[in-house]
Amino acid sequence: MMHKRPIHNVLTGLGMLGVFLMGWWAWYVFDGSEKAEQRAIQAAKDYVHQTYPDSTLHVTDVMYLSLYDPNYHVRMASETSVDTDFTVRVTRSGKIIDDSYEEDVVSKFNTYGRIQQAYDQAVQDALRLVFSGRISLMSELPYLQWDEDKDEVNKIDLDELEMDQGTGLSFYGARYGILFAHVRNTSYTYEEVADLLRDLKWEADDRNIRFHSIKLQITIDGVERYTEDIFYDDIDSPNFVDHLERLLNN
């Protein structure tokens, strides 16, 4: 009986130590410290200045993603190149893991993303209010995937882009632009759908928004239908209603 109290105290102490260590581990994993963050920032700055020639590279953001990736993600950008924007991954101890320069900058994905974002913004600014309540619009400039043949699909080839080039929305829109049109709230006839798409094309032309094709989701005679590849040049054709009906019934 005399030894139970010391044993109980030891077990209690070990339990408290375990709780402390678990709490410390959770803090370490889930929340970076200010010193570790500053160490990561300095390591990233030293790394990029030694690795890349752009002397204007600077830190724009720092993220610590805890359980997803318990390292610091230091975002770097250039003052002279709008498409030079990438992330350096750094451990809490300040060791460089890798960076996304190749996949973001060299690949021209940043260039593509900037053009895509500008196109979508132009579509929304020009057409969203005009068709508010009738059509939900989204847009895309599709890009060529690594396993696709550019001679078989109509998509932007990233290798043909130039870093920091102009957006060229009229060119890219007319050649690759896709409008996703979801027509809501009511049921249409094929003639009414054709008129609605002619209105959409007219408003887009009037606001200098170019597109290559439309993907359409709409209810016709009480049945929801979907089709792709409603091409720009087909909309004004005299047989558009018949052509549309065939598309929507395939």
What does this structure look like?
β2 and β3 form a beta hairpin. This protein has helices at residues 4-30, 34-51, 101-106, 109-127, 169-176, 190-206, 240-249, and strands spanning 58-65, 69-77, 85-90, 96-99, 135-140, 178-183, 213-220, 223-231. The chain is elongated, with a radius of gyration of 28 Å. It has seven helices and eight strands, in the order ααββββααβαβαββα. It has two domains: 34-106, Nuclear Transport Factor 2, Chain: A (Roll); 109-249, no CATH class. It is an alpha+beta fold and 250 residues long. The model has no long low-confidence stretch (mean pLDDT 89). The strands form two sheets. A four-stranded antiparallel β-sheet has the order 1-2-3-4. The longest helix is centred in the N-terminal third of the chain and has 27 residues, at 4-30. α6 (190-206) crosses α7. The chain is 42% helix and 22% strand.
> Could you tell me how far the N terminus lies from the C terminus, measured between alpha carbons in angstroms?
86 Å
Helix and strand sequence: HHEEEEHHEHEHEEH
State Rg.
Answer: 28 Å
**What is the average per-residue confidence, as pLDDT, rounded to a whole number?**
89
Give the % helix.
40-55%
- Please state how the strands of the largest beta sheet are arranged side by side: 1-2-3-4
Number of helical segments with 4 or more residues: 7
* Tally of strands: 8
Biggest sheet, open or closed, and with what strands and sense?
4 strands, antiparallel
Structural class: alpha+beta
Please state the overall shape, judged from the principal axes of the Cα atoms: elongated
Uncertain runs are none
Q: How many structural domains does the protein architecture include?
A: 2
User: How much strand?
Assistant: 15-25%
